[in-house]
Amino acid sequence: MTQGPASCPHFSAWDREYSHVRWGGAAPIEPIRSRIPDGCRILDAGSGKGRHLLPLSNFYDCTGIDVSPTALKASREYLAKREREAHHVVSSITDLPFADNSFEAIVCFGVLQHLLENEREKAASEFKRILKPGGTIFLEVFGIKDMRYGGDAVEPHTFIRQSGIIYHYFTKEELQHLFRDFGMLDINDVITEKKFKGESHTRHMVNGTIQLASEEDTKIS
Q1: What are phi and psi of 73, to 5 degrees?
Q2: Domains of the chain with bracketed CATH
Q3: Running DSSP on this structure, what letter comes out for residue 169?
Q4: Taking a C-beta distance cutoff of 8 angstroms, is the pair 178, 128 a contact?
Q5: Is the pLDDT of residue 216 over 80?
Q6: Would you give the DSSP letter of residue 114?
Q7: Mean pLDDT for the stretch of residues 55-69
Q8: Residue 68, exposed/middle/buried by CB under 10 A (0-12, 13-18, 19+)?
Q9: Where is the Methyltransferase type domain positioned along the sequence (predicted)?
Q10: Pick from 132, 139, 218: which is nearest to 183 by CA?
Q11: Closest to 108 (Cα-Cα) out of 201, 20, 182
């Protein structure tokens, strides 16, 4: 039996979280625009209140999924106010309700870090299933050197906060291993220093693009 978002405590925690998270404004999408032609079908995997979904909907056939109905309701409202449209589906990225080879691209920013190890493996497998040959994933996650690292450990480099939300911190090598069966990987550490109350703190993100092998590449190999 497949677990739905409502039956998993750290998934349902997101609905409580989004009940008080404010709209953060539209997010930049230039890296996606530079690689994905207009009109392609894109999945925003963990779309929240639509920060990426809104600008993406100007150019693509977009679907946003999230485990939080509250977030998706807000996303629909934000898009409607701006006369934009996108499909919205309540779903976890570990069990996607889409046919094989459905999307030319997947956007997944700040989402994989909120899953347990077996869930991250399931998500990677689902991404491979629904992505068209030659399709691209754009992703970003927390890195292990980040100032926010820590909490009540539940797995290696994985913590649960009082909110019930899971936080996992990646290494570049771990993310490369997670998507080892895809094809072309361009994964990078992004480490910056931020000042808080006069003290310097490290922010560590791991981001990049992953391209699924095309049908021609598969035939050659």
Answers
A1: -60, -45
A2: 5-220 (3.40.50.150)
A3: -
A4: no
A5: no
A6: G
A7: 97
A8: buried
A9: 43-138
A10: 218
A11: 182
Return the structure tokens found at 87: 């499909």
The terminus-to-terminus CA distance of the chain in angstroms comes to: 36
Question: Phi and psi dihedrals of 89, rounded to 5?
Answer: -135, 130
| Length of the chain in terms of residues written | 221
Q: Would you say the C-alpha torsion 17, 168, 42, 12 has a positive or negative sign?
A: negative
φ, ψ of residue 86 to 5 degrees: the values are -160, 155
* Rg (alpha carbons) of the chain, rounded to whole number: 17
Q: What is the mean pLDDT of residues 165-180?
A: 97
User: Which residue blocks in 53-171 are alpha helix, DSSP H?
Assistant: 53-56, 69-81, 117-130
Phi/psi at 52 (5° precision): -95, -35
